[in-house]
Amino acid sequence: MVLIDRSYRGKEFLNENGFTLHAILTISDILEILEEEKLITKDQLNAVSRFLLYDVSGKRLNFEQRLKGCKNPATRKLYERMKEKQSNLILSLDVDTEKEFFTILEQVSTHIIMVKTHIDILKDFTPDFITKLLRIAADYNILIFEDRKFADIGSTVRKQFQGGIYKISNWADFITVHMVPGPGILNGLFDHTKTKTSAFLLAAMSAEGNLITENYSRRVIEIAKKYDKHISGFIGFGKTEHDLKKLKNKIPETMLLLTPGVNLEQTGDGMGQQYVGIEEAVRGGSDAIIVGRGIYAADNPASKAKEYKEKAWKAFVTYNL
Ligand code: S5P
Question: Which pLDDT belongs to residue 314?
């Protein structure tokens, strides 16, 4: 019998004897049919799906165990938001005016656990923006994620994180960090500060042709294990469920895998962005999806956010909870 990963569905591939196989149905498809026909229960479907997800290891912790074992307070907050809001949707709100930003944020706020900012995109930024953002975040139980992608020597990133006009360390629950400069970047960001901000490290990017290799991803994860006080997890994209699973299996269980490049309608944006579907991302082990244009550029961001949230949470409950 050949076990076929869902990501191969509808595609042709060669088996080890050189025969072309055409994948029509996956084990997951069959399980879903059995559940629809009431031949197995939802619990059985979930248990077998989890078993398959983790390469038949069956050893991964469930959501509650991961939350319990998690020592990083910022990561715990994110786990708790997921539980409270029954959502694993992060909105990437890459618009360029304050008005647009808050109009969309208020429309979608009940559906998201976190808003990801690129604060330097705003053309009318003033410190009042942060005051307002913090208030809305508190009112709607949303965390704030500044996607600054720090990538310099320790001394420089410290200034970029704490200083300038943005003073990110005062308000961001999370930031993103590239590990290209090595571990010194984490010392620069976190030594001798009382910041509550925690980091997500870029482990695999969605941009086509990016230079991150599997070995680089592994090294990033190894460094993160030593700095778990300040690291909440990883940004990780995979074109297929299988690619994501390979990454997920290297990640410590209490850390989170957030996946950008998720879109229900597009496969790319003509500028190198690549997209994966919600189901594939979550089946691959993604804990939360990051969606930008799929929501904020939609005719009705609120109903789109609801759709993304419901689909992503359903997949999470089925395969990852
Ligand atoms: O590999 C990555 C990492 C990130 S953080 N690919 C990404 O697209 N991102 C960010 O996710 C990117 O900077 C943007 O803010 C968001 C994706 O936006 P979308 O409009 O393509 O969904």
Answer: 97
